[in-house]
Design brief:
The protein is an alpha/beta fold and 406 residues long. It has 2 domains: 146 residues, Aspartate Aminotransferase, domain 1, CATH 3.90.1150; 240 residues, Aspartate Aminotransferase, domain 2. It is 36% helix and 15% strand. The strands form 4 sheets. An 8-stranded mixed beta sheet has the order 2-9-8-7-6-3-4-5. The protein has a 3-stranded antiparallel beta sheet with strand order 11-15-14. A two-stranded parallel ribbon has the order 1-13. The longest helix has 17 residues. It binds pyridoxal-5'-phosphate.
Amino acid sequence: MRTFSKSTKLDNVTYDIRGPVAKEARRMEMEGTKIIKLNTGNPGIFGFNADESIINDISKNLKNALPYGDSRGIVPARNAIMEDFKSRGITGITNEDIYIGNGVSELIMMTMQCLLNPGDEVLVPMPDYPLWSAAVYLYGGKVAYYRCVEENEWNPDIDDIRSKVSKKTKAIIVINPNNPTGAVYSKETLQEIVKIAKENELIVFSDEIYTRITYEGAKHIPIATLEPDILTITFDGLSKTWLACGFRAGWMVISGNKKVATEYLKGIDLLSNMRLCPNMPSQFGIQAALTNNESINPLLIPGGRLMEQRDIAVNMANAIPGLSAVKPKGALYCFPKMDIKRFNITSDEKFALDLLKEKHLLFTHGTGFNWPYPDHFRIVFLPDPDTMKEAMVRLGDFLATYKQQV
Ligand code: PLP
């Protein structure tokens, strides 16, 4: 009998944040088990609400959202995005350089699909937000991972980046503020990255979806402001800062030296036209969001929920024997290290599965973020303080006796 398999294009493609361990959690939930699920950065399921102004503008415009719109996105939203980027120092852009997508996710796929030929290489941070690696592989490219260094607050290792550049390298991906580490890169680090991009004629793809989520005065610097001469594509969206993941609205701005990429940019236009347009209703909320672009700030300061939850997660992780966690300066995650000898861990996926089964607590293991060793996992610090504490107590209890059985 003829059988059907998935395309070989998917051979190296994984997305463990919603992978087999999360699937087991779903199965357990179906059987009635209550699980604390800290695998996705999804603020809406932890009691966070988007600002009413965004919701009102979307509701008011539902009828206007019936037709297909401009394939790049509606003009008022693109104008608001352009003004926002300009106000943060990104120069030489018009609203024609802006594309709205069904989340940043769609734009990641689109930009990689348009860029890559078989064998082309892309520099991707390790650990990464795994959609980037998945997109490179899916569209025939090869990932060249560059290390981020835990001992240096998870900043990228510049020498490692240099050593990974080859004749086939077309682009470098920067995720800043970072998922899963919570790092906010220093200006010096970004300047070095830009230098490498310039010397090697690379495109910079900068995923800045957490640009406004920083703590204790950490300053996020949009990389596109540093070197107007290299082609840079910067990503942001409604999902995190405006707590509206489900609306599926993200955007990108193309800045810098566009002359070197006339054909590539035509390709982006083509792919954008082919998807007809991004989902219409949520685009009507973008202007309100960007008018209210500091709405997340109260959550990030002392007494604010995100900062409090971050501190609970990091402090309690560091108090667990065999765990250590760098304090994140941004985003919604920390990425603690486990003493794998102490816990006899050879598979971090098995660690995550054992924890789920014994303590009904779900984390994503570090190799799910393309970290090469089984010694990390990611904590999402979105649950309310009491739930966050409860999760960390369960983790501590679990690790107090855990020895992985091979
Ligand atoms: N980029 C990063 C670094 C993320 O962490 C996420 C989601 O967690 C995305 C992109 C996807 O964003 P969107 O919801 O806009 O598709």
